[in-house]
Design brief:
Length: 86
Amino acid sequence: MKNHTQQPMPSIPSDAAAEEFVATADLSEFDLSGFKPMNFEFEAKSAALNMRLPRNLLDAVKRKAAAKGIPYTRYVRLLIENDVSR
């Protein structure tokens, strides 16, 4: 292990530049502590759910989703997926 401070990740403007960077860079030299896990949704959404909620509950859901940086509908879907996968 090298004995120096890790560099911040550079801004990468395109997918091609990202592929080149990953292929040639020593990622152990960079500070990756700010990275967060990412989930990708590949399955098509083929059904809809319509429900009525008290306004205060919907507002709370929207605040939680905003704090996570995702749309509230995706946040609700994640809650349902997490619950049924247990």
